[in-house]
Design goal:
It is built from seven helices and 27 strands. The chain is an alpha+beta fold. Strands 4-3-6-8-7 form a five-stranded antiparallel β-sheet. A five-stranded mixed β-sheet has the order 9-10-11-12-13. Strands 19-18-17-14-20 form a five-stranded antiparallel β-sheet, with no helix packed on it. The relative contact order is 0.07.
Length: 476
């Protein structure tokens, strides 16, 4: 064999060896890669692998879950905010090693700025039979660092969680709608007032429901529950602040209705206070009774309250507006006796008397009561009387601040100038003497400062005035 042939065969031999070695090495790598991404089956003992990846805009993220779980495995995706409230919950299935969805906020709006966590769970109870055949009826075949044990249920499940942050710039870069901007502005306003002690949700229609809580509110509520009369003033300050705060949120919410619930704590189901729009629709201290009875369709039996001159008295009731001695007269309301279908006046009972309702006499008109009379017991004397329901009130408003008290009922106050506002009417100053007695009749709500409306008596003439609440002190 000549030299050239020897060289040729040697070269061929070396090339064949090189190719064989290359294939062997490549084959090892392919096997290794396949092993890492091997789909979990009933025959394998592979650890379950699951990774969460984010794509797209930060405030409008798309989520991809990469896993070696078999096709049709059901994954539960949850987006939790910083209060651990679930903002988004979706169920998706694995296909070819992946499962994808988006994480958009309310009405597919971008996520509001804040801290979130994304949780992916795989639980046996949500899987079809073909998947249970792989992972086990109780998840007993699941292994890996993300596998946890649900001890009460005696089953294993898979859980992966990652943190996710949306910055304010991310939010506005996502071109949010006006509705999304409004919702974010509401959250910022609530955070300024209550920190992170809140939950906010967009309900059906145009109602935005917000729940807040604070240790101070709960403490005051507990004090009122123990001693209603002594602590009701402080509670009504909380009540009025919540009402004013809800009105402020209503201005931010534009065309949406805002309802704010003051709760005992973050997981409480029964609110202490509820303000819808600008009206208090629930107050736990009132035990289901409205502030003033009137003809509201409520069972008043067992209610403890007070006698009060009504806002619009009938012909038999005392009317302080017609009394020039209103500041010194003892105010009273009429009592009655029943004569068949009629109620005949037979006496009076003093304004502010504490009483308990023992029975009610009424005509049920479906949505309300007509001709409603209450049989009441004087708490101090035990004497029974019948009164018109409009003269029964739950709250001793004369113990509240002047502004809130005037919104509930009439009272006598004394004027002393301490504010930087003069008494006025129709945008003109009214001269009122120091120590002058004022018959307060109502509250004029104004975003620039609320006023108490009432009358003073000067030189025999009734003069209507509007006062800064701080210039009045209730004396009766």
């Amino acid at each position: 064999m000549n030299v050239h042939k020897k060289r040729y065969y040697k070269l061929c031999f070396l090339m064949i060896c090189f190719i064989v070695i290359a294939v062997m090495l490549t084959g090892c790598r392919i096997v290794e890669a396949a092993s890492e991404n091997a789909v979990v089956t009933s025959e394998t003992k592979e650890d379950v692998k699951l990774a969460i990846q984010f794509r797209g805009e930060r405030a409008k993220p798309e989520i991809a879950v990469v896993t070696n779980l078999p096709d049709k495995t059901q994954l539960q995706i949850r987006l939790l905010d910083s209060q651990k409230d679930c903002k988004i919950e979706k169920s998706i299935k694995v296909l070819s090693g992946q499962a994808q969805t988006n994480l958009l906020g309310i009405l597919d709006e971008p996520l509001s700025p804040g801290e979130y966590s994304v949780t992916v769970e795989v639980k046996p109870e949500t899987q079809q039979d073909s998947i249970l055949a792989v992972i086990g009826e109780k998840g007993e075949n699941l292994t890996g660092e993300n596998v946890l044990m649900d001890t009460p249920k005696g089953e294993k499940y898979l859980c992966e969680q990652v943190d996710y942050t949306v910055a304010e710039k991310d939010f506005f870069d996502s071109n949010p709608t006006e509705n999304a901007k409004t919702f974010y502005a509401l959250e910022k306003a609530v955070q300024q007032e209550y920190g992170m002690n809140y939950r906010i949700a967009k309900e059906t229609g145009n109602l935005i429901e917000i729940t807040v809580w604070s240790d101070n509110s709960l403490s005051v509520y507990e004090q009122v529950s123990e001693d209603f009369d002594s602590n009701i003033g402080e509670w009504y300050e909380i009540r009025e602040n919540l009402r004013a705060f809800t009105l402020k949120l209503g201005e931010i919410a534009r065309f949406n209705m805002v309802e704010v619930n003051l709760a005992e704590q973050d997981d409480s189901q029964n609110p202490l206070l509820t303000v819808t729009g600008g009206d208090v629709s629930h107050d736990a201290t009132q035990k289901g009774f409205p502030v003033r009875a009137d003809n509201t369709r409520v069972d008043y039996i067992g209610a403890i309250g007070y006698i009060a001159v009504e806002n619009y008295p009938d012909g038999d009731a005392y009317d302080p507006i017609g009394d020039r001695d209103f500041a010194t007269t003892i105010w009273t309301v009429p009592t009655y006796r029943k004569d068949k279908q009629f109620y005949i006046k037979n006496g009076t009972i003093e304004h502010k008397t504490k009483v308990e309702v023992v029975s009610q006499n009424l005509i049920d008109k479906g949505t309300h009561y007509g001709n409603l009379y209450l049989t009441i017991k004087n708490i101090e004397t035990g004497e029974l009387s019948i009164i018109d329901s409009s003269n029964f009130i739950i709250v001793p408003y004369w113990k509240l601040d002047t502004e809130i008290a005037a919104s509930i009922g009439k009272y006598v106050a004394e004027y002393h100038q301490v504010s930087d506002r003069w008494p006025e009417f129709d945008e003109k100053r009214v001269k009122v003497n120091e120590g002058e007695k004022v018959l307060a009749l109502g509250t004029k709500w104004n975003k620039d400062g609320n006023k108490v409306t009432g009358f003073i008596l000067q030189n025999g003439d009734w003069i209507k005035c509007e006062f800064d609440p701080s210039d009045l002190s209730i004396i009766y």
